[in-house]
Amino acid sequence: MRTPSTRSFVARYLDPSERLDELLFALIMVLSITLGVGLATDKDSSASQVVWAIVGCNLAWGLIDGCMHIVTRMFDRGSRARLVQALRSSSDEDEQVATVGSALDGLLSALTSADERRQLYLKIAKRLRGADVQRTRVAAEDVYGALAIVWLMVLATLPAIVPFLVIGDRFVAARASNGLVLLTLFAVGCAVARSIHANPWSMGLSTVVFGLTMVIIVVLLGG
What is the rounded distance in angstroms from the CA atom of residue 158 to the CA atom of residue 51? Predict the structure, then answer.
C-alpha cells in the first residue's frame, strides 16, 4: 500500500474525480484547437504559434480552475462551521438528526438502517455541538491542489504539441496531434474504468466519443 509520502503530488491533493475532470477538460480544449488547425486553409499561423496557443489556453484555464478549486475547498470547510452552528441552535433531537442527515444521508442511507443512522447522527451531533468553530481561511492544501490542477492542464498539452515540434508540415502535425490526443482520451477512459470496475474498452471508446462530441458542440457554437 502506498503511503501519502510516496503518492504523486497530483494524487495527494486531488481526488480521482477531480483528476478526471481536469484531464478531460484539458484534452477537449487542445483537441478543439488542433482540429481547427487541421481544418484551416490558410498558412498564416506557424507551428510555434499553434504550440503557444495550446499551452497558453490550457495554462489560462488551469489558473482559473485552480482559483475555483481554492474557493470550493474553502466553501466545503465552511459547511462544517454552518453545520455546527445549526446544531448549537437546536435542542430537539429530531431536528439534530435531520440536520446531520442532510449532510450524510447520501453516503450512509444505502449502508445502514434508519435506526442505525439515528443513533450515529445523535452521537455526531453531540460531538459537533462542542466543537470549536474556526474562521475559514485558505489552507496550504488548497494552494497545492490548485497547483496540481495547473500542472495537469499543462501536462495534457504534451500529446498535442509534440507533433508540432518534430513535424515540419503544420497540417500533418495537426493530424498527428489529433490522433495522439484521441489516444490519450482513450487511455484516460480505460484508467477510469479500472477505478470504477467498468469495461475499459467501452469506457475508453465512450470517452473518445464524448470528447469529439464536446469539440463539435464548441465548433458549432463558434468557440
Answer: 10
What confidence category does residue 45 fall into, taking pLDDT thresholds of 50, 70 and 90?
Answer: low
The amino acid at 172: V
Q: From the centroid of its chain, how far is CA 144?
A: 14
- Owner of C-alpha cell 487541421: 38
| pTM for this model (two decimals) | 0.74
Q: How far apart are CA 24 and CA 212, in angstroms?
A: 11
Distance of alpha carbon 96 from alpha carbon 113, whole angstroms: 17
- CB-CB contact of 4 with 184 (8 Å): no
